[in-house]
Structures are given as C-alpha cells and as structure tokens.
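Reader question, answered in our methods column.
A reader sent in the components of a multi-part assembly and asked whether the whole thing could be modeled at once rather than chain by chain. We filled in our standard form and ran it. Here is what they sent:
COMPLEX SIZE: two components
ENTRIES:
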Amino acid sequence: MNVSEQGECILHLEFEARVDNLKAIRPQVDETAVAEGFDEKTADQLVLAIDEACANVIRHAYEYKPGSVILNIYREDGDLVFVLEDFAESIDCSSIKPRKLDEVRPGGLGLNLIDQIMDSWEFVNSADGKGNVLIMKKQLPKKAKTAHVQM
Amino acid sequence: MSKCEVQDQAGFALVVVEGEVDMSWSNDLRQAILGPLNAGRPCMVDLSAVAYIDSSGIAALVEGYQKAKGAGTFFGLVAVSDAVRSVLELARLDQVFPMYENLEQAEASLS
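And here is the structure of the entire assembly that came back:
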C-alpha cells in the first residue's frame, strides 16, 4: 500500500483503454469496496460507477483509439476516493454535466449513474495539460458501534 | 459466458440474455432486439440470467422500447434480475418498460 497526498492507496490499476479490459477491472473494484466495509448492493453500484467512468474514457476521451488509463483508489478522511486518469486530449471540464433523467432516450446515462452513486465527483485537467482526471468520492460506511447494556 | 439468443415464440420474438452486459458486446444485444422489431414483430427480452448490465446495455433496451413504440408493436422485459432492476431504478427507468415476472405472464399480455 502506498501513502500519498491523497491518502492511503489501496488499489492501483494501469490498463489499456479497451472495452475487453472492463470485465477484469470490475471484480477488483468490487473486492476493494467490500473489503472497505460497503454492503453488497453499494459495492455493486460502485463497480457500475467505475465501469461507466472507464467506458467514458474509452468512448469519449480516447474515441476508441489506443491509450493508457490509471485507476487509483484511496482511503481519505472517511471517504473512498476513486481517481481515474487518462492521457488523451484535455476536454472542457465545464461542458460535462449529467443529462435530465426524465428524458427517456438511449445514451448519455453513464454520467447520471456516476452522479447517482457517488457522493461527489469532479473532472479536472491534468496538471501538465495533457489528459483528464475524474475524482469520485463515496463516504465509507460507519463501523458498527458496540452496544453497551447496563444490567 | 455472456451471450444473447433470439428464440421464436408464438406471436413474438424472445431475446434471452446471459452474463455480463457491457459495452464490449452490447451492440450484439441491440441488434438482437432491433432485428425482430424492424420486421414488425413484438419482442420480449428475458433478463433472468443477467448478472451485470451497464448503461450501454440499458441503452439497447431503451432503443428497443422506443422502436416498438414508434412502430406500433410491443417491447417488454421478462424475469428481470436484481442486477438489472437495480440499474433500471438508478436510471429511473423501472416504471418505463412493461415488465413481466415470467414468460407465461408475458405471453398472456399479448393474447
């Protein structure tokens, strides 16, 4: 495990931006979420959110061209922090907004799912001006308190 | 193993889906759904064996629903697994699709 300025890194994955890599990433995110105390349903949702984020990188950032992606998961100040980084052309972060869910139409749902599942998320451009970083946060479940019963 | 298969039923086509639906093969699902609908045939999708679905899989279902609506035919979901239902709820689409608990119920709705 690494300790960085963003907290303790509990999962580090580097992979090629290819759709056939998504299946191998999902169980690793699931195992991490469960190990951090999330219930099965929430862990499944976190897997979905990360899968959607990776799919968006493949589809929109790299436009199905070859490229590298890094996923780091940190434990930081009571949150699980997911940092997804690509090295594609920088996008206009202000243009990225979830669409209205009352429109029944195919496509454009990925960011909505991320928005529904995560407590917060933000897009930033990489510090060196090449690439994009999506930072998503989910509050870690509170540990069960021991019941004290006075007799 | 993930796959989808189109079965010919009396009065409609049944697309049976298995495994994890993601963008690596959701276009196959889309084609399987649109095939019968483009031919004017009602279509049902059996989702009982789907362990995972992403937004591209959901988009294939939405496209089928809209295609059927526009063509005046029928599109519905059968035996929706918990994994799929959970994503439909997150996307607020769980009230949009006609859904049936089993094939018998789906068949009865068309008779």
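What stands out: DSSP finds four helices and five strands in chain B. Residues 1-74 of chain B form a domain with the Transcription Regulator spoIIAA fold (CATH 3.30.750.24).
Send us your own complexes using the same form.
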